[in-house]
Design goal:
The chain is α/β, with parallel strands linked by helices. The radius of gyration is 22 Å and the shape is globular. The structure holds guanosine-5'-diphosphate, 6-O-phosphoryl inosine monophosphate and magnesium ion. The site of 6-O-phosphoryl inosine monophosphate has 23 residues, from helix 4. Guanosine-5'-diphosphate (GDP) binds next to helix 1 and strand 3.
């Protein structure tokens, strides 16, 4: 049986983790294929909240094997802390598999990220300061350290010496930082990290191929989202990996035939953390309402998220870029108290109408939204579990979005809890 991909269609925090938690029930493996601990995926199960950064959201099911694929960058301390945190909550992580080819996020990556952002001042990208960009830059520069290097102490020490020779010059000369001692770091990785992490390092590619061949369904869990994608996002205000569905295969070590379902996750409105363009942004009391009602503060960094109306232009572009077969619409309940709900149906730039994202940044930067207004439902949806219980205005809103996006909305969530969702068939 082929696999399913869950991918964010906006700027992240769409509720990917909570959708994965539901879809994973029918899957044998859940694989993270890119990103690192810049992600924050929240699951609420029986009133208990789990905020996951690196471990795939399927971990709560005993029958699911969570896999960290080769496309991920792994901060080993964060991973070990997450395993411990889950263990303390009674979740067994012994099934976890980590690809030997995944790259490590090390203290100098985090330092470079933080110092670079500070130096940029008002021009900062607004990164999570987790070291993700520098770790992927090292991977591309072929100076990265991989998970498998933890199993080879001499090689690890040698590589750290080589990379830190140059990195320490930058840290000292440009940022006035004392630098990182390669031997201290190597000792720590060899004595503290490697023994704890090595039981999880395994043949993730072999494992996934065998699962697919024997008819199991594998779920690929995207982190970040389409418009944070290094190629397709609002560059340079993007992350340093490729969240789009195409990369799921690269980041897990599979070919294109391995997937027959791509579920695009879209919030019923829009949010963004960090800098960059935002055509439908609301800097008014409705924006504040969305922040407070939707609890729009980063799972990971605690930062206040920027908010705006649903943007069909981005959604359509996302369907194209990811080949979404369907959409899961989340956080519909957050709109419960709004009398009027606006939806951006197209952009206008210099008098021209755009149904898809303008292909040049300088056009995108000048885009203004063309809105259609829909009546709100002014009812609490948080207990709704079936389409028949939805007020007409909510059905109309979902159907309108479906028509705008061009693929079916098959799942609608109305609260953070595992049970707070309904299947939607038009
Ligand atoms: P992810 O990064 O895409 O997994 O999303 P996050 O976990 O960062 O952010 C989504 C937030 O919305 C989390 O706090 C979820 O618990 C919450 N959430 C998810 N679905 C719903 C929903 O349908 N309604 C409400 N009110 N909250 C939701
Ligand atoms: P999940 O998986 C929302 C944003 C940062 C910043 C930009 C680059 O929870 O949806 P980075 O640290 O990756 O170099 O920062 O990307 N960003 C996210 N925004 N959700 C995320 O992950 C994000 N991961 C990174 O805020 O704008
Ligand atoms: Mg998140």
């Amino acid at each position: 049986m082929p696999g399913s991909i869950v991918v964010g269609t906006q700027w992240g925090d769409e509720g990917k983790g909570r959708v994965v938690d539901i879809v994973a029930k029918e899957c044998s493996h859940v694989v993270r294929y890119q990103g690192g601990h810049n992600a924050g995926h929240t699951l609420v199960v029986d009133g208990e909240t789990f905020a996951l950064q690196l471990i795939p959201s399927g971990v709560l099911y005993e029958h699911v094997i969570p896999v960290i694929g080769n496309g991920v960058v792994v901060d080993p301390h964060v991973l070990l802390a997450e395993i411990e945190m889950l263990g303390a909550k009674g979740v067994d992580c012994s099934r976890l598999m980590v690809s030997p080819q995944a790259h490590l996020v090390l203290p100098y990556h985090q330092l470079m990220d933080e110092l670079a952002e500070t130096q940029l001042g008002d021009a900062k990208l607004g990164t999570t300061k987790r070291g993700i960009g520098p770790a992927y830059a090292d991977k591309a520069s072929r100076t990265g350290i991989r998970v498998e290097d933890l199993l080879d102490s001499d090689y690890l020490r040698e590589r750290l010496h080589a990379v830190l020779r140059e990195r320490n010059i930058i840290l000292r000369e440009i940022y006035g930082h004392e630098g990182v001692d390669p031997d201290v770091l190597a000792d720590q990785l060899i004595t503290e990290v490697a023994p704890k992490l090595s039981p999880y390092i395994g043949d993730t590619i072999g494992e996934l191929h065998t699962a697919l061949q024997s008819g199991e369904r594998v779920l690929f869990e995207g982190a970040q989202a389409t418009f944070l994608d290094l190629d397709h996002g609002t560059y340079p205000f993007v992350t340093s990996s490729n969240p789009v569905s195409g990369y799921a295969l690269v980041g897990a070590g599979l070919g294109p035939g391995a997937v027959d379902q791509v579920i695009g996750i879209a919030k019923a409105y829009l949010t963004r953390v960090g800098s960059g363009p935002f055509v439908t942004e609301l800097i008014d009391e409705i924006g504040d309402y969305l922040v407070e009602t939707g609890r729009e503060y980063g799972t990971n960094t605690g930062r206040r998220r920027r908010t705006g109306w649903f943007d069909s232009v981005m959604a359509r572009q996302s369907v194209r870029l990811n080949a979404c077969s369907e959409i899961a619409l989340t956080k519909l309940d957050v709109l419960d108290q709004l009398k009027i709900i606006k939806v951006c149906v197209a952009y206008e730039v210099d008098g021209r109408r755009y149904e898809y994202l303008p292909h040049l940044r300088r056009l995108h930067d000048r885009a203004t939204p063309i809105y259609e207004e829909l009546p709100g439902w002014l009812q609490d949806l948080s207990e709704v579990t079936d389409r028949s219980e939805l007020p007409n205005e909510a059905i109309d809103y979902i159907s309108f979005l479906e028509q705008q996006i061009g693929v079916p909305i098959r799942f609608v969530s109305v609260g953070p809890g595992r049970e707070q969702y309904l299947r939607f068939t038009s």
